[in-house]
């Protein structure tokens, strides 16, 4: 903590201190400092333990156990204010019974890892506690967002980074934006008149694509039956000829093909759809092309791997989740749009209490009306900070990461012939808390482990550990 006495944590008794003693209370400064230093101690201890292989990934309890209450830790909301001592215990125990997603042996999700600079960014963001809707109250963050989005568009390959975009609460929402904007581009009157102003619109996506595309078609009133699934090859990539055949078929039926989603890094196989070939078809039939790079978008930062997304610059919109492969703390997802003005046109409502046109500054920086949200969390700062801390030129932000689930399914799936094996092993794995990996069936394949490695803390030995652990746990089955 350094030598400055002001920042020394003293052995404090928090049992007689309450929230009302903290700032803005009179003389609240001292208890506030002591309390926050204690919290920081808890958090930094957690960070240390996260990277310690002798600790468990999780201390699993069933919902009823946690609901009944653990020793000293009760989820019930109390009638009376609790002392700060209890509040600190609650902080400690909340972390204790949670899952260490940054642990080197956590492989359960596409978003893993605990980036220290990103964490610092998130702490600062919470401290600033502002809202992204206007420049008025988030001047620095709004500019950071504009600048970073432009950089991302340059990396996508749009001339001079032209275009538009916004950070959204995750890839599913970013994908939903893409469908909305596509519809607005071709049928702007839907904004005011609703779906009766449009013909029957058809969307196309891979059978391996993320379910959020389907969710978007339901939520936006297009209907899940109007989402056509495309066949994939043996590595899980869309077969372009199948797209063209289905586009022609839809047109013959009198429907209007509106939107094609190409996935750059599918959620299960890590497959990259052939964007150029899909773009040819979209151009031929005048269809919006979206690239869902929620997972694989991070590879655009890599000179070595960005070819997997070649043709991405031909997309009309791109989803890119820095909170996945790039290890930015949750949440951080961007929707990038090639044509400027569509986001604004599609979503703006010009609320008079927020977006007054007669402010003293350039109100084009009041970007909040482009969003479907009103208030919007500051997701940009941690990302901007990490970018600054790690890359001077556009190279490879996740250089040290063993990125991606590769494109060959056999490399990452431990395929078992019996569907019950993987869930059984996973259950034992969670009870023992030593490691975590996801499982699922896919098409004809029964449950297999979806082995995704994007945690920068993981080494080869952790992967060996996981495999040995699967073997050990499965021994008695
Ligand atoms: C994870 C993922 C999404 C959804 O992103 P969230 O941030 O979880 O909403 C969408 N598409 C793909 C390909 C993904 O891997």
Automatic annotation (TrEMBL):
The modification N6-(pyridoxal phosphate)lysine is found at residue 324. PROSITE patterns: DDC_GAD_HDC_YDC (PS00392). InterPro entries: PyrdxlP-dep_de-COase, PyrdxlP-dep_Trfase, PyrdxlP-dep_Trfase_major, Pyridoxal-P_BS. Its EC number is 4.1.1.15. The keyword Lyase applies. CDD domains: DOPA_deC_like. GO terms for molecular function: glutamate decarboxylase activity; pyridoxal phosphate binding. This is Glutamate decarboxylase 1. The gene is gad1.
């Amino acid at each position: 903590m350094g030598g400055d006495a002001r920042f020394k944590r003293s052995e404090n008794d928090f049992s007689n201190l309450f929230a009302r003693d903290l700032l803005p209370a009179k003389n609240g400064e001292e208890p506030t400092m002591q309390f926050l230093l204690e919290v920081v101690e808890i958090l930094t201890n957690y960070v240390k333990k996260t990277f310690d292989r002798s600790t468990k990934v999780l201390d699993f309890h069933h919902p009823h156990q946690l609901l009944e209450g653990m020793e000293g830790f009760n989820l019930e909301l109390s009638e009376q204010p609790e002392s700060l001592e209890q509040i600190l215990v609650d902080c400690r125990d909340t972390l204790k019974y949670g899952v260490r997603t940054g642990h080197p042996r956590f492989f359960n999700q596409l978003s893993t890892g605990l980036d220290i600079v990103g964490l610092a960014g998130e702490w600062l963001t919470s401290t600033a506690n502002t809202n992204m809707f206007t420049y008025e109250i988030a001047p620095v963050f709004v500019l950071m967002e504009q600048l970073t989005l432009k950089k991302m568009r340059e990396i996508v390959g749009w001339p001079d980074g032209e275009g538009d975009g916004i950070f959204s609460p995750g890839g599913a929402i970013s994908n939903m934006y893409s469908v909305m904007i596509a519809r607005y581009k071709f049928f702007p009157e839907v904004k005011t008149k609703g779906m009766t102003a449009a013909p029957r619109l058809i969307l196309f996506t891979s059978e391996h694509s993320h379910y959020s595309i389907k969710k978007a078609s339901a939520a936006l009133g297009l209907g899940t039956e109007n989402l056509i699934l495309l066949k994939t090859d043996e590595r899980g990539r869309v077969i372009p000829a199948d797209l063209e055949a289905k586009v022609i078929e839809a047109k013959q039926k009198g429907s209007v093909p509106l939107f094609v989603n190409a996935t750059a890094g599918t959620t299960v196989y890590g497959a990259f759809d052939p964007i150029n070939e899909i773009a040819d078809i979209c151009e031929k039939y005048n269809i919006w092309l979206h690239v869902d790079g929620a997972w694989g978008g991070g590879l655009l930062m890599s000179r070595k791997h960005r070819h997997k997304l070649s043709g991405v610059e031909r997309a009309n919109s791109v989803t890119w989740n820095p909170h996945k492969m790039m290890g930015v703390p949750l949440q951080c997802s961007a929707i990038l749009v090639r044509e400027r003005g569509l986001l604004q046109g599609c979503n703006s409502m010009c609320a008079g209490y927020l977006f007054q046109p007669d402010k003293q500054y350039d109100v084009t920086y009041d970007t909040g009306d482009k969003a479907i949200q009103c208030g919007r969390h500051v997701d940009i700062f941690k990302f901007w900070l990490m970018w600054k801390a790690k890359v001077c030129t556009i190279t490879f932000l996740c250089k040290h990461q063993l990125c991606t689930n590769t494109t060959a399914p056999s490399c990452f799936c431990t395929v078992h012939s019996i569907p019950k094996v993987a869930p059984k092993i996973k259950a034992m794995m969670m009870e023992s808390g030593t490691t975590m990996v996801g499982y699922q069936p896919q098409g004809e394949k029964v449950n297999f482990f979806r082995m995704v490695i994007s945690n920068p803390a993981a080494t080869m030995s952790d992967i060996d550990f996981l495999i040995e652990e699967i073997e050990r746990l499965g021994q008695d089955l």
